[in-house]
Task: inverse folding
C-alpha cells in the first residue's frame, strides 16, 4: 500500500479500488525498494542502497547457509551484505544491496545476484540499471 | 503462450504452499527460472521483426527472469515476499481476500512477436468486483 500511495496522483484511485485512504500512510515506498525478486534502477546517481528481505520457507526445522555471488552490470559496482548468512526455517533475513555508478553511461546494463544455499537451493535475481551517473 | 503455462505452474505452487501470498508465488516462479535454453546456451532474443536469424543474447528486458522451471519453482528455498500487513499466512484465500495483488510476467518467446518484457499488476477489489489493470512496460 505504501508503494501504491507513493505514486503521484494515485490517492483517489487507491481509495476507489481498495476502500483505504492513503492518508494513513505517511511514508511512501520507492519503486526500487518494493521487495520484488529483481532490481531495476532507472537512474543511478552515485551510490544507491536497495533493501531486499528473504524468507526461508522450509517447513521442517532446518538451517541453510547461503553464499551470495553477483555479476555486476556494466559500469556499476555491486556489493551485497551480508555476503554469507545462515537462515532458519521461517526466518527472514534483510539484505543490503549497494550499487555505485562507475562511469556516465545512458545505455541499460544488466547483471545478476545469486544466492547459493548449502542444501542445493539457487535463488537468482536479475539486476537492470539504465542511466548511470558517476559522482 | 507462456501466460497459460505460468498460470498453471502458479496453481501448482498454490497447491503445495497454500499460505503463499501472490507475491511469494511470483517470487518462486522468478528466482528459480532458467537462464539457458534446451541447448544449454544463453537464451536468445530476436532483434528484427522480419528476420528470425537476427538473434542476440536476451536481457532481462526481453525475458524477465528467464524460462520458467516448474520443478525448481516448487522448491524455491527463499522467497521475496511483499506486505505481510493484509495477508496473514493462516487466512490467505484469494477469493475472499479484499485485496489481491497478482503479478504476471509474460515472456514473448515466439519469433513473430517483438521481444518485450511486460509486467502486469492486477489489483482486484473483490467486494466491488471491479478489477483494475495497471500495465507497466519496461
Result:
Amino acid at each position: 500500500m505504501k508503494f501504491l500511495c507513493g505514486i503521484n496522483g494515485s490517492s483517489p484511485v487507491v481509495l476507489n479500488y481498495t476502500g483505504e485512504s492513503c492518508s494513513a500512510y505517511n511514508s511512501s515506498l520507492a519503486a526500487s525498494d518494493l521487495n520484488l525478486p529483481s532490481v531495476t534502477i532507472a537512474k543511478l546517481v552515485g551510490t544507491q542502497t536497495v533493501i531486499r528481505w528473504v524468507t526461508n520457507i522450509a517447513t521442517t526445522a532446518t538451517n541453510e547457509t547461503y553464499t551470495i555471488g553477483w555479476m555486476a552490470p556494466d559500469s556499476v559496482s555491486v556489493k551485497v551484505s551480508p555476503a554469507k548468512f545462515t537462515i532458519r526455517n521461517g526466518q527472514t533475513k534483510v539484505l543490503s544491496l549497494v550499487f555505485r555508478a562507475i562511469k556516465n553511461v545512458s545505455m541499460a546494463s544488466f547483471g545478476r545476484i545469486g544466492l547459493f544455499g548449502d542444501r542445493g537451493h539457487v535463488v537468482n535475481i536479475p539486476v537492470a540499471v539504465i542511466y548511470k551517473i558517476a559522482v | 503462450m507462456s501466460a497459460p503455462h505460468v498460470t498453471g505452474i502458479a496453481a501448482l505452487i498454490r497447491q503445495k504452499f497454500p499460505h503463499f501470498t501472490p507475491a511469494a508465488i511470483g517470487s518462486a516462479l522468478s528466482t528459480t527460472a532458467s537462464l539457458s535454453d534446451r541447448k544449454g546456451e544463453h537464451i536468445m532474443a530476436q532483434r528484427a521483426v522480419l528476420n528470425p536469424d537476427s538473434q542476440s543474447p536476451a536481457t532481462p528486458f526481453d525475458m524477465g527472469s528467464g524460462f520458467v522451471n516448474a520443478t525448481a519453482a516448487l522448491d524455491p528455498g527463499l522467497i521475496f515476499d511483499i506486505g505481510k500487513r493484509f495477508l496473514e499466512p493462516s487466512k490467505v484465500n484469494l477469493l475472499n481476500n479484499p485485496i489481491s495483488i497478482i503479478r504476471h510476467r509474460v515472456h514473448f518467446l515466439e519469433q513473430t512477436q517483438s521481444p518485450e518484457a511486460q509486467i502486469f499488476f492486477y489489483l482486484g477489489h473483490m467486494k466491488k468486483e471491479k478489477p483494475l489493470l495497471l500495465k507497466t512496460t519496461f
